[in-house]
TrEMBL record:
UniProt organism field: Asanoa ferruginea
Residues covered by the EAL domain: 24-276
Spans through the membrane: none
Protein name: EAL domain-containing protein (Putative c-di-GMP-specific phosphodiesterase class I)
Residues of the full protein shown: 186 to 464 of 464
GO MF, one example: cyclic-guanylate-specific phosphodiesterase activity
């Protein structure tokens, strides 16, 4: 406790820049403690087939409940973990927890599990081996796992692509996350070792609040078909009207608050029933 909040620290570091640096250090220290004490947890958000509304998979999302901060957003602690070297440990813990949760709560259901992977993890040439060992330990086959990576990660290095190729050889599918945000170029989809695309809300909607842009949906579907990519998932679907529009445009899968919010395993994985209304 003493090292985290030294007496007088706030008055000593009075400039905004120092405060920020100090907040970073304190977040890093608290995150490390949380990881070491195994206090991070995993929530699961369903992926839904728009043709009928069946839940086909779940995305595992890391959660950090901190006594003082409350639930810290992954958008804050994942980048911190990528900076301070904790990401590989966190990523492996999330994966192992997700595999255990799936076996415990959703063992008999034929749903896939999708896990986010950082570019930093992929750049480690033991990564694929770690994943395959965890799968073997938990008795999970490659076909049941998806890995979500950003497009910039896919383009990052030959080493990271080699990891993905090794995972795909074991039947694990690779999805491009947040497609349409960063440097997405539609052409790169053809050249990358991928099996699916998660279309970002930003690409689907040019205005807020708006409906999914039919031109975007058609373009991505055409491109995916040409590249042999089968898993196409619309992200961030927040209304019934969006769901109906996407379904009418032939979007195969979707994810979003309207279809199911991220929830703990005991609630999310136990009864993979269709959500209230898809069509
Ligand atoms: P992501 O992988 O793109 O995950 C989707 C994020 O959008 C999640 O935020 C989810 O809660 C949120 N979301 C889902 N449906 C909706 C919706 O309808 N509307 C809106 N506005 N948001 C929606 P979350 O859980 O806060 O995670 C944020 C990001 O943190 C993730 O984005 C992912 O990039 C990263 N992340 C989370 N867990 C992990 C992890 O275990 N490892 C790594 N490397 N990254 C993670
Ligand atoms: Mg994701
Ligand atoms: Mg995403
Ligand atoms: Mg994201």
């Amino acid at each position: 406790e003493a090292s985290r909040r030294a007496p007088g620290a706030v008055t000593v570091c009075s400039s905004p820049m120092m405060a920020t640096a100090q907040q970073r250090v304190s977040l890093d220290i608290d995150l490390r403690r949380a990881v070491e004490a195994d206090r991070l947890t995993v929530h699961y958000q369903p992926v839904v087939a728009l043709d009928g509304g069946r839940i086909v998979g779940y995305e595992a999302l890391a959660r950090w409940p901190d006594q003082e901060r409350g639930w810290v957003s992954p958008d804050a602690f994942i980048p911190a973990a990528e900076r301070n070297g904790l990401i590989s440990d966190i990523g492996l813990r999330v994966l192992r927890q997700a595999l255990r949760d799936k076996r415990r709560y959703g063992g008999s259901f034929d749903t896939w599990l999708s896990v986010n992977v950082s570019v930093v993890q992929l750049d480690d040439d033991t990564f694929a081996d770690q994943v395959l060992r965890a799968m073997a330990d938990e008795g999970m086959s490659g076909e049941q796992l998806r890995i979500e990576v950003t497009e910039s990660a896919l383009l990052a290095s030959a080493r990271s692509r080699a990891q993905l190729i090794e995972l795909r050889r074991a039947g694990i599918r690779v999805l491009v996350d947040d497609f349409g945000t960063g440097f997405s170029s539609l052409a790169s989809v053809r050249r990358l070792p991928i099996d699916g695309i998660k279309i970002s809300r930003e690409l689907l909607h040019d205005e807020e609040p708006g409906l999914p842009d039919p031109t975007v949906v058609r373009a991505v579907r055409l491109l995916a078909a040409g590249a042999g990519v089968t898993d196409i998932i619309a992200e961030g679907v927040e209304s019934a009207l969006e769901v109906r529009t996407l379904a009418a445009l032939g979007m195969p899968y979707a994810q979003g608050f309207h279809l199911g919010r991220p929830a703990p395993a005991s609630r999310a994985l136990r009864w993979p029933l269709a959500p209230a209304s898809v069509n």
